[in-house]
Amino acid sequence: MIGLDCILLLILHLSLGWALSYKQGENVTLYVNKVGPYHNPQETYHYYTLPVCRPEKVDQLREAIEELFYFEFVLDDIPIWGFVGYLEESGFLPHSHKVGLWTHLDFNIEYNGNAVIFANVSVKDVKPVILEEGAGAVVGGVGVGGHSLTVTHTYSVHWFESNLPHSRRAERLRDYSFFPKTLEIHWLSIINSLVLVVLLLGFVIIILMRVLKNDFARYNVEEEAGCDDLDQGDNGWKIIHTDVFRFPPYKSLLCSVLGVGAQFLTLATVIIVMALLGMFNVHRHGAINSAAIVLYALTSCVSGYVSCCFYTQINGQRWVWNIILTSSLFSAPLFFTWSIVNSVHWFSGSTQALPATTVLLLLGAWVLVGFPLTVIGGIVGKNRAGSFQAPCRTRNIARQIPAQPWYKHTAVHMAIGGFLPFSAISVELYYIFATVWGREVYTLYGILLCVFAILLSVGACISVALTYFLLSGEDYRWWWRSILSTGSTGIFIFAYSVFYYWNRSSMSGLVQSTEFFGYSLLTSMVFSLMLGSVSFWASLAFIRYIYCSIKMD
After folding, report:
1. Of 49, 189, 502, 510, whose CB neighbour count within 10 A is largest?
2. What pLDDT, in 10s, does the model give residues 277-335?
3. What transmembrane ranges does the database entry give (predicted)?
4. How far apart, in Å, are the Cα atoms of 511 and each of 47, 87, 344, 435, 438?
């Protein structure tokens, strides 16, 4: 008899068979890893934060069992999971509430020759030690008094021979899961979403092209007929040709949004392609996170180049300030949010809290790699920036904008432009949330790439359509409007994250809630920047096209 929970590692003596790279009779080491609430994947603690070695803290142990704390051991790189205790809740009158502690664990190990193939833990034939509230009780031969508890932990090992070779061990691990497998792919829903999006795009493109064809014909006929005073009639978007390329206010901020959006567009594309090529282990979420951090630093040159290049084209003068703003537009909110989340983890004693060395390493990556690449990209973009290619001259005096109907206001355009792209990814968004904030494994990166392409296409088409409607009302303030129209998709994504938290997950507690809402807010910001950049460039290309297609002096 030994105390399983009072030692740093457990030595299981080999009674038969062979261990991987061990001789017969050698020990197989089982490492104690972590514990955490079953429904909060990002909230984990060191195994010995539980009062299993501190008999005076029985109430804390009861609370952990009631929150469905599980433990994780590691044997030959094989994770082993099990619940810390037993919880039974039944009946209304009378109500039954039992909390028990597992004091015996049965380890089942499968082997093939000298290789360990699989391992798990079972309590199938074990009776838990009931933890009663109060003092002076004796349950099952275990003394409970004065809020102290004395138990003896034991274990047993069962060896089973397997025909599965070690090279295919991952298949055995994939087929078994301690956590629920709820990530079922609803192909019908995905196909239905894709069909609706394709029909929507076709509808917008066909209608818009027919309207533009009529506009081109009408405007060119008026020009050939000698209609010199275009201001006398209702001429739609042609009448504002001397104002449509008037540079917007807050040029530096606009260019920074475009630059950071282009950076995240590049980063997301590279991540999805790498995943599609099988460069990540699907069982390790941290691999994609690490790759995203490295790529974020390396793609900083993209944001600096795009931002400073366009800023120079629209006659921006403070290019140094533009580079600083670009480098901090997302990194500053990221650092602020991460500081709060990490502080909560540290205060709670969670293993998710990053140590000081890792924090310094991440800061060093941004200071030594991310920021310098932003500066280099900005300098290259400034030097390679040409003139702004505008097909129309701009008047010195701005034209007065007529009053607009309610359905052309910014809020309405943001609602339409944000909801349609969100509806294109709503089905896939559930699976992504279930993977990031749950315990499921996501492997359909081909579908993810298709959905990502559709998202960008929908955002571009909707932005073009809304920009056309804006110009038709003789409103030339399209610069910021094009960014906000589909950039509002991030608002819908954050609203969905709130819905997911309350209705689709069982997450709770300060630690998990802080991390979920903090990083969900950052994710929404990423989508807003990325889609805002795409919609702006689509609108700019569209405006250049239509004003190059009509005859003007």
Report:
1. 49
2. 888 765 555 778 888 999 999 999 999 999 999 999 998 888 999 999 999 999 999 99
3. 187-209, 253-280, 292-312, 319-341, 353-380, 411-433, 445-471, 483-502, 522-547
4. 17, 23, 6, 19, 15
Task: Give the CA angle between residues 335, 336, 338 to the nearest 5°.
Answer: 65
Q: Determine the Cα–Cα distance for residues 253 and 317; give it in Å rounded to an integer.
A: 13
Torsion of CA 157, 158, 161, 165, to 10 degrees: -40
Domain ranges of the chain: 28-134+150-175, 187-221+236-393+405-549
Whether pTM exceeds 0.85: no
Pair 62, 99: CB distance under 8 Å: yes
Helix (H) or strand (E) holding 284: none
pLDDT recorded at residue 282: 59
User: What would the two tokens of residue 355 be?
Assistant: 């140590």
| 58-88 residues labelled b (16+ CB within 10 A) or e (exposed) | beebbebbebbbbbbbbbbebebbbbbbbbe
Which helix (H) or strand (E) segment is 35 a member of? strand 27-37
Residue pair 51/62 in contact by the 8 Å Cβ criterion: no
- In sequence order, what are the beta bridge partners of 139? 142
Contact by Cβ (8 Å): 155, 105: yes
Low-confidence ranges of the chain (pLDDT < 70): 1-23, 31-33, 38-39, 47-57, 59, 89-96, 132-149, 177, 179-190, 192-193, 196, 216, 218-235, 281-285, 439-441, 551-553
Contact between 551 and 218 (Cβ < 8 Å)? no
- Compute how many other C-beta atoms are within 10 angstroms of the C-beta atom of residue 168: 10
| Amino acid letter for position 539 | S
By the 10 Å C-beta count (0-12 exposed, 13-18 middle, 19+ buried), 328 is classed as: middle
Angle 532-276-501 (CA atoms, 0-180°, nearest 5)?
Answer: 55
Q: Report the DSSP pairing between strands 129-130 and 96-101.
A: antiparallel
Contact between 307 and 259 (Cβ < 8 Å):
yes
